[in-house]
Write a sequence for this structure.
């Protein structure tokens, strides 16, 4: 058993801490480093050095922990600033695209809710005592000619807008998706960790789910009027989107662990 | 010799050392230093990534062995590695011939 002040042990401990790579690869690197250092130290002692001198000479010949870590980490060897910036922009593009597609899908869910539960579930009711601007009322009544009151017209306007405007956002998402596929057709692995995009996506869509459910449960109102379906339609899609990224995150983490 | 220039040719040098027979990391690196008469003296720990890269490329294979109570990885040239070494040697010979000719040295 080596003493606590054994320089090789200390070197290997530091290498272990600094190596931020897959566990299997790290274990192999450490085993090879220890074998190399012990062999070099034995040669040094055979040449007349003391044990400590031989160990220090072996470490000196092996190279600094920083140099060895850098040599093993292929990610550090690429041009980090440009590659990481490019991949961050692409990741933001991809996440923004998925966000818009999710908004579009929530429009379809809102349409389904309108059919199943009636427009009031999404459109809500105007809070008692709320004053609606006359100019806004004119617009809502003009858009919904069969309605008898400003409140009813506002409710219908919200229930219809929750579908049409969101689907328009979804169509924009499809355009961005086509552009993204065109840019990323090289299929080359990026500088960012594979788990980065699914981790961010699950976090964002998960937070969106929680936030929208909370808004629905508190009876929050957006604009003149909105019902629980206005938020729940979004929450359902956000939850599905977060779940859709889980297998990708799992695959990325397993691949990383296996090296 | 500049480290960057050496790194650019490290794969060829490692394959060439392994052509003499299988060996573990320390032995390969010692052979590289001795055969170059001390000219090629990189930090030893930075040569292992090159061995791993050659293995990932299928030019070298490796397996665990036990010596002096320690596990050690022993590397050997594969058939693909031998073919790659032969091709690299031919290319390097032509390159060196050209450099020598331009510098006015006899080959």
């Amino acid at each position: 058993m080596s003493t606590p002040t054994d320089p090789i042990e200390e070197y290997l401990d530091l290498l272990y801490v600094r190596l931020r790579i897959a566990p299997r690869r790290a274990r192999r690197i450490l085993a090879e480093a220890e074998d190399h250092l012990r062999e070099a130290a034995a040669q040094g002692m055979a040449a007349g050095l003391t044990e400590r001198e031989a160990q220090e000479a072996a470490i000196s010949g092996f190279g600094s922990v920083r140099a060895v870590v850098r040599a093993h980490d292929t990610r550090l060897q690429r041009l980090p600033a440009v590659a990481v910036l490019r991949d961050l922009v692409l990741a933001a593009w991809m996440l923004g695209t998925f966000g818009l597609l999710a908004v579009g899908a929530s429009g379809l869910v809102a349409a389904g809710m309108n059919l199943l539960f009636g427009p009031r579930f999404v459109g809500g009711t105007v809070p008692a005592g709320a004053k609606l601007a006359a100019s806004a009322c004119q617009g809502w009544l003009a858009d919904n000619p069969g309605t008898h009151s400003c409140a009813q017209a506002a409710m219908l306007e919200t229930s219809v807008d929750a579908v049409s405007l969101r689907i328009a956002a979804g169509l924009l998402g499809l355009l961005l998706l086509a552009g993204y596929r065109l840019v990323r057709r090289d299929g080359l692995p990026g500088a960012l960790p594979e788990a980065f995009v699914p981790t961010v996506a699950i976090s964002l869509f998960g937070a969106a789910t929680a936030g929208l459910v909370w808004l629905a449960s508190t009876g929050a109102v957006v604009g003149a009027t909105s019902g629980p379906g206005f938020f729940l339609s979004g929450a359902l899609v956000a939850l599905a989107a977060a779940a859709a990224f889980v297998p990708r995150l799992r695959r990325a983490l397993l691949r990383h662990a296996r090296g | 010799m500049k480290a960057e220039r050496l790194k650019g040719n490290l794969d060829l040098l490692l394959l060439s050392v392994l052509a003499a027979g299988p060996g573990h990391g320390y032995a390969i690196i010692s052979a590289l230093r001795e055969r170059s008469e001390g000219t090629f003296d990189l930090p030893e720990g930075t040569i292992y990534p090159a061995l791993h890269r050659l293995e990932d490329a299928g030019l070298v294979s490796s397996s665990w062995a036990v010596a002096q109570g320690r596990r050690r990885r022993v590397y050997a040239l594969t058939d693909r590695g031998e073919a790659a070494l032969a091709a690299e040697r031919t290319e390097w010979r032509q390159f060196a011939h050209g450099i020598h000719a331009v510098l006015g040295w006899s080959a």
Observations:
- Chain A has two domains: 7-77, 80-258.
- Chain A is about 80% helix and 0% strand.
- The two ends of chain A are 30 Å apart (CA to CA).
